[in-house]
Amino acid sequence: MFAAAFMLPAASTTAPAQETSYAVTIHDDRFEPGTLNVKAGVKFQLRVKNARKVAAEFESAELNREKVVPPGQSAVIYIGPLAPGTYPFFDDFHQSTRGRLVAK
Amino acid sequence: MLSTAVIVFRETLEAALVVSIIMAATYGVTRRGVWVGSGVAIGFAGACIVAASAGAITAAAEGIGQELLNASILIVAVIMLGWHTIWMSQHGREISREMGEIGKAVAAGDRPLYALAVAAGAAVLREGSETVLFLYGIASSGDDSAIEMVAGGLLGGVTGIGVGLLLYRGLLSIPLRYLFGVTNAMIVLLTAGLAAQAAGFLVQADVIPALGGPVWDTTSILSEKSLVGKVLHSLIGYEARPAGVQVLCYVAVLGGLMLLSSLVRSKHQARSARAGMIAVAAAASLTSLLWVDGARAEFKIRYPNIDYREVEIEHNFSTTFDKRADRNRDVSSPVEVGVGILPFWFVELEGEIERHPGEKTQWEATTFENYFMLTEPGKYWLDFAIFAEFAHATKRDDPNTVELGLLFQKEHMNWLHTLNLFWEKQLGSKAEPIDTVSYAWQTRYRLNQYFQPGIEFYGEIEDVNHAGRFNDQQFRVGPMFAGSVSLADVFGKGKIKYEAGYLFGATSETERGTLRTRFEVEFPF
């Protein structure tokens, strides 16, 4: 219905979605932060910024996630809800660059 | 150099395995090399384009463009391989019998080689874009080691293709009598695996729910990163930590293809390609049901032609993408049941199920819709119908509404143009004194029954007495496709219709992107 769009303008502007969000930046030699603490049991958004001059791929077998991040850009990845534990991740294009995510 | 080689090897291997299976499955078919080769070449060209536009793709659809693209590519591959599987379940036996008797290649007639060409292209496109991006990054970094690393990339690529060739040679050593049975089974497993991968990307984008965290965790036994894990991931869709919905999609596609293959085989109908599309449509419907996520406006063109003595069940889905949180993921997912009760009168009852950002999924309104067809289709220069609807709001504070519309349609050769104009008024004490006008246009080309690409736009003026500038109004425009599949082969009657489109917001009042789908089952009575 086109109608609904106009019947509910108040409803669609009052309560923006409350999303838990974390951020991690890929530098030439490391992730910043190298250990990211997140809340266990809730779905969250991870913003991955690539500060390198070349493309990177955020990847984690433990999280079952992979995503290419072009140089200088940020990408959004949805993760979880996670069980408490440690989840390593790395840059698939530069495999010595590693970090980990700790869900508590 | 070695690390580069390893990375490129892994990406190339996945695509190479898919292409080898396809090549083995088409052994003996004339001109298959041209078809599959073109698919691979186009896929590679596409991969370069995707890599070059990686920045724009990553930023598209509020950061989930990459996932949507990857999922779309994989779904195309699933559709094509599914279609081919159904086709082979009818003709495969004839082909292998003839080959066994005559002992030489036979032309496979109308075998859908293009389906396999597209699937091969999709595999190359999907894996190739990441590789190209990776190599380009190295090449452009200006490092001293750049040349060495590019050499490593080449080494990895060649090795990946080599392993693919080994698989191909291995498959060809199977006696011809069994070859197609084996390749068909491999393609079914491959298809199910690709469907699970597509679901994985949609979960990562938060478009569909995960339906449970990892169903199992076999990382310690067989990591997906290991060579064996990677090969199994490519061939049969092995996942070390799958989400619930991935397992569900895998089982649904595997079961659906096996069921349809046996149905087609037992009935032995001529037009079995349709059955493949039914499988696809069923999978699409399953996916849309998973989208419980709940849109606001319903984006669909209303057609003036009525199906008398027909029952229709319809599901429409739309979701928005925008940087503004209060406009992102505004989902509408209405379900309708309609009946053509008179030759010129069609009635529909609709439940408007919606989910606005930050809210729960809700049944917003129940609507009663009427179509009055005033011209006999095709009799005059223009087909014309009147649309009238009453919407009863579920919540007390929301007003009921009445909407009137004019629906026009013009057929010209293979082109179909449809125009909708609507006027809407709110009723009762809660009503705002405004007149809302909306309009929609669609032009599509009827390529064939299954695939009709087109373009469409939707505009609305919230209060026509204070219309404001165009930029204050809503306007969306974008590509779409529609198609239908007959259910006559399976149920003796009926039809499935489907549509999908992506709309770009053209004004600042409009969400930047809107994805819409429509799925409909029709049965005459």
How are the SSEs placed, and which strands pair?
The complex is a heterodimer of chains A (104) and B (525).
Chain A: H1 2-7, H2 9-14, E1 20-26, E2 31-32, E3 35-38, E4 44-50, E5 56-60, E6 65-69, E7 74-79, E8 85-91, E9 94-103
Parallel strand pairs in A: 1-4, 3-9
Antiparallel strand pairs in A: 1-2, 4-7, 5-6, 5-8, 8-9
Chain B: H1 2-25, H2 32-52, H3 54-63, H4 65-102, H5 113-140, H6 146-172, H7 176-204, H8 227-236, H9 244-267, H10 273-290, E1 310-321, E2 331-332, E3 335-342, E4 345-355, E5 362-373, E6 383-393, E7 400-412, E8 415-427, E9 435-445, E10 452-461, E11 474-486, H11 488-491, E12 495-505, E13 513-524
Antiparallel strand pairs in B: 1-2, 1-3, 1-13, 2-4, 3-4, 4-5, 5-6, 6-7, 7-8, 8-9, 9-10, 10-11, 11-12, 12-13
Helix pairs in contact in B: 1-5, 1-6, 1-7, 1-8, 2-5, 3-4, 4-5, 4-7, 4-9, 4-10, 5-6, 7-8, 7-9, 9-10
Radius of gyration of chain A: 17 Å
Oligomer: heterodimer
Distance between the termini of chain A: 43 Å
User: What would CATH call the class of chain A?
Assistant: Mainly Beta
Which architecture name of chain A does CATH use? Sandwich
Which spans of chain A of ≥5 residues are poorly predicted at pLDDT below 50?
1-17
Mean of all residue-level pLDDT scores of chain B = 83
